[in-house]
Amino acid sequence: MAFNHLPAGVHDALSPLSVTPVTHSMPMAKNHRSDRTSADTASRPSPGTVLDRLASGPSRASRITHTEHLPPRAGRHAVWPDRIRSEVVAAVQAAGIEHPWAHQALAAEHALDGESVIVATGTASGKSLAYLVPVLTALLDGSEAPNGRGATALYLAPTKALAADQRRSVKELSQPLGNAVRPAVYDGDTPVEEREWVRQYANYVLTNPDMLHRGILPSHPRWASFLRALKYVVIDECHTYRGVFGSHVAQVLRRLRRLCARYGSSPVFLLASATAAEPSVAARRLTGLPVVEVADDASPRGELVFALWEPPLTELHGEKGAPVRRTATAETADLLTDLTVQGVRSVAFVRSRRAAELIAVIAQERLAEVDRSLARRVAAYRGGYLPEERRALERALHSGELLGLAATTALELGVDVSGLDAVVIAGYPGTRASLWQQAGRAGRAGQGALAILVARDDPLDTFLVHHPEALFDQPVESTVLDPDNPYVLAPHLCAAASEIPLTDEDLELFGPAAADLLPQLEAAKLLRRRTKAWHWTRRERAADLTDIRGEGGSPVQIVEAGTGRLLGTVDAGAAHTTVHEGAVHLHQGRTYLVKHLDLEDSVALVEEANPPYSTVARDTTAISVLETDTEIPWGEGRLCYGSVEVTNQVVSFLRRRVITGEVLGESKLDLPPRTLRTRAVWWTVTEDQLDAARIGPEILGGALHAAEHASIGMLPLFATCDRWDIGGVSVPLHPDTLLPTVFVYDGHPGGAGFAERAFHTARAWLTATSEAISSCECEAGCPSCIQSPKCGNGNEPLHKRGAVRLLTELLRGAPRE
Asked: Residue 416: which pLDDT band, with cuts at 50, 70 and 90?
């Protein structure tokens, strides 16, 4: 029997920067003033005092498992390079920024030297100004050119909202420069009548990778003058380009470079990122170019007190009688309530829109019992709000009218809310980069800040609150992406050929796998070779072959049954697990129930409802090995990496009570199986190893299954993925290996780089997995260690102690990394 764990599809978890609370208030650069008076700042309680008050209630103190103190840091100024135009320096000074931080000046120097550069410094450290100053200088120089439009620059953001924010900032900063700088947003929301003006006259175009892929590159003749003059390409929040999405963006950037070369330009790439492990390596994989890194953060920060908080066990019981912890949602609502009562300006970050609304409502109800006026000072902030609603909430938070906000990561990325007093993070957000980005929203120089990570009932969260060194003594994760994934590369080769016929000289740009793919694309009648070039053969647009954020296949449309109104879409790969019949679907704060899923027409019919539960799909999975790329002996066992085929079928779904997580029931489903060819890491053990670990046939399946669940839960600590991006299968006797085997695989066609990262960090990854299981205080296994919320076998069988013994024996033979 195989035990399995399948991902629910691509979850674009945007996961930015490292913590640096600072003195900033201006969205772009923030090297200056505070919007709070010194008297007001002095009246604020210290973060330690705030934490002491939070921990003073009954049983509260025991919930804090660790407190980390990050000392304040003074800023280090420098001078702008002398090649920066004096008008640009004057404009920056007029915005209140007298001198740059040292890292800003250094990054600008590299840009002026024609070197691509990545600025990898903390939250609110002024990365935007580091790239804007050389860009504005180039645009100002270009405006004085006797012929043509002069220099141009392209800005890429992962979201339309961030591009719009940056346009406002650029317009404000460049106002003293007159008509020399003409910024314009070009995305799916740009009115048709404005698009021609942008193409012809804008010299700083702000867009996103999706529009570059579908709109700009396929229409490059209409952008010829812009591309011919392209001096700089700015890639903001570049750490968000990871996994399959990042791999697609890497190929889009190679297509851009190819077209620029044909028009005679060679733009310099300026990237902004979180502090990351080897940021220049990640930037090179993304752009295909050598990239210099500037990672020494010279901006100031105040003291940060960072507490790890574990909710208590409750009297409730979950699957198989396992104990259930109080939910992070309920705990966070309590903390936000208490912080508001103290007058502490706070944001609680949560992972879902529903949780944001729920926390805000609970806090408002509890605050009304204390003081009715306080209830109006807490609100929710999430995706789906209108821009004017978001701006109003941001202004209210800045002014102090709002004291508390329950927010999704819509507030995490690129929105200027630095200077809060406290941040509560409801559940580990998936990467250390995102954790520090959220924590960095609190504090400013000279003013302390408090951050609290509230653990969910999850193996990774449980491990982290009991192993603080994994958060505070480790660098931010390496960005994982694989531009050579054939499922990613193939459609971009077609798109490139449709833009300009593809020659042999172009293949080096697209990577070593390109040459082998071309004959396959010709056999599929997508490309045809004529003389010395490959040509696109179809009438339809080649750019439509792939959705760079999705998994391929027609997206399923979500339609309101009563009105016929289109609510949205979901990737085809995620449809079986997210919009099956009976699923709870959230859209812009409203809750719907899926009444029917039509797979032929790719439509899910929904009706508005308000059920007291959420739903989680259950599935069964079989896996076969297609090819083993690498195999390493681990004592008598083996650690392997290669290609696999996964066959999955969603068979049922659970209904869980929203607040407690209690299982209310299970319903069967009848959906067809699906196959996935992807990449996996797997390990085997021998009979002798099982004997040494005292694991007999009666507990073998449970031990393997438990180890599989926990290892999937721990992998996000080592690769920039979410546990829903990966899947697993455990088999007491696998037909391809003829041994007990545990597989962990990427939930994306062709792989996403996560399993490869797991293979290369296997010793540390599986050691952490073993520690996470053994340190959990439960007796026989619970959601904090070996139970999975998406297990297709109802978390049966599982054997906690057997998993620890099995992993200990396996690791005994592991080579030193």
From this structure: low
Full strand arrangement of the beta sheet holding 230-235: 183-185, 204-207, 152-156, 230-235, 268-273, 117-120, 292-294
Rounded alpha-carbon distances, angstroms, from residue 169 to 45, 66, 106, 150: 33, 39, 22, 22
Helices (H), 600-736: 687-692, 697-714
CA pair distance 553, 568, nearest whole angstrom: 16
Query: Pairing relation of β-strands 726-731 and 3-5?
Result: antiparallel
Mean pLDDT of 363-374: 92
What is the chain's Cα-based Rg? Answer: 27
SS3 per-residue string spanning 75-104: CCECCCCCCCCHHHHHHHHHCCCCCCEHHH
Say if CB 789 and CB 3 are below 8 A apart: no
Q: Which residues pair with 676 in a beta bridge?
A: 646
- Biggest CA-to-CA distance, the chain: 83
Dist. CA 680–CA 641, nearest whole Å: 6
The SS3 call for residue 206 is strand
Q: What is the DSSP string of 529-592?
A: EETTEEEE--SS-GGGG--TTS-SSPPEEEEETTT--EEEEE-HHHHHHHSSTT-EEEETTEEE
Condensed to tens digits (0 to 9), the pLDDT of residues 775-801 reads 888 888 888 889 887 676 778 899 999
Dist CA 198 CA 204 (whole Å): 9
Phi-psi domain of 114 (left: phi exceeds 0; alpha: psi -120 through 50; beta: other):
left
How many other CB atoms are found less than 10 A from the CB of residue 762? Answer: 24
Q: What is the spatial distance between Cα 788 and Cα 804, in angstroms, rounded to a whole number?
A: 17
- pLDDT by residue (tens digit) across 562-576? 899 888 778 777 789
Q: Please, how many CA atoms are within 13 Å of residue 531, restricted to the half-sphere of its CB? A: 1
Residue 369 C-alpha from the chain's centroid: 38
Reported confidence tier of residue 411, pLDDT bands at 50, 70, 90:
low
Give the global pTM: 0.80
Q: Are 177 and 90 in contact (CB under 8 A)?
A: no
CA angle 621, 626, 630 (to 5 degrees): 110
Round to whole Å and give the CA distance between 378 and 340: 8
Say yes or no to pLDDT of 548 above 90: no
Length of the chain counted residue by residue: 817
Structure tokens at 727: 């899947």
User: Would you state the structure tokens that stand for residue 530, as one six-digit string?
Assistant: 């004529």
Distance CA 677, CA 726 (A): 13
Residue written as token pair 């080897």: 278
Residue 408, SS3 per DSSP: coil
Q: Return the pLDDT at 443.
A: 77
Among residues 277, 269, 196, 254, the alpha carbon closest in space to that of 18 is found at 277
Which spans in 174-242 are helix H?
A: 192-201, 209-211, 224-228
**634, two tokens:** 């681990």
Q: Note the pLDDT tens digit of each residue in 675-722.
A: 999 999 999 999 999 999 999 999 999 999 999 999 998 998 888 777
SS3 at position 471: helix
Q: What is the predicted pLDDT for the residue at 43?
A: 61
Residue 218 tokens, joined: 């396929």
C-alpha distance from residue 19 to each of 441, 450, 460, 748, 790 (Å): 8, 12, 21, 31, 32
Q: How many CB atoms lie within 10 A of CB 813?
A: 15
Indicate the range of 476-485, 554-563, 590-599 predicted with least confidence: 476-485
Angle at 593 between CA 589 and CA 594, to 5 degrees: 125
Interior angle at CA 614, CA 612 and CA 618, nearest 5? 145
Q: Which two tokens stand for residue 96?
A: 């209140």
Look up tokens 């399923």; give the residue: 556
- Given strand 502-503, what is the order of strands in its sheet? 502-503, 533-536, 527-530
